[in-house]
Amino acid sequence: MKIGLALHELHRAENELAEKLLHVSDRHKADHEIHHLARDLARWSQRHVRELAEAGRRYDVDLNPEPRGETHLMARARDKLSDAVGREPQASLLLLIDLREVYMRCAGVSADWELLAQVAQGVKDAELLALSKKCHPETLRQMRWANAKLKESATQILVS
Fold first, then answer.
1. How many angstroms separate the CA atoms of 27 and 30, rounded?
2. How confident is the model at residue 79 (pLDDT cuts 50, 70, 90)?
């Protein structure tokens, strides 16, 4: 069923977005705003993963309700790298690269939510449509945050 494919793809994309946000948070720990906001935004995607898994059950789609996470060893390695990178001039360029990737992933997830909403309307599934209407605005907020931070960071790098 095509709904199953849409659910699978969105579940995968939300998982990857959450992982990327956690990676950005860890890599840029020296920038407290980036660190904390990226973590908060990752939790939104993690919640979306859980809710998509729940919605998938109605369509006999087996999605893992637990968001993918990184291993403790990887998190510790990132902490060490973050401490070293936070003091380097390249940290600003790495932040631009990371924010661009977050923005692009958000755009893809947003398109997936739009597609799922269209499918839900087509099959007249009010619950699935409600899920899309609830989660999609959060994805758009994630994308606006990444875009705003990208612009702010680019301006700081290019002007200084």
1. 8
2. low
Q: Which residues of 133-160 are buried (b: 16+ CB within 10 A; e: fewer)?
A: eebbebbeebbebbbebbeebeeeeeee
Residue found under tokens 């998509």: 52
pLDDT tens digits, one per residue of 84-142: 544 455 788 999 999 999 999 999 999 999 999 999 999 999 999 999 999 999 999 99
3-state SS, one letter per residue, for the chain: CHHHHHHHHHHHHHHHHHHHHHHHHHHCCCCHHHHHHHHHHHHHHHHHHHHHHHHHHCCCCCCCCCCCCCCHHHHHHHHHHHHHHCCCCHHHHHHHHHHHHHHHHHHHHHHHHHHHHHHHHHCCCHHHHHHHHHHHHHHHHHHHHHHHHHHHHHHHHHHC
What pLDDT was estimated at residue 39?
A: 97
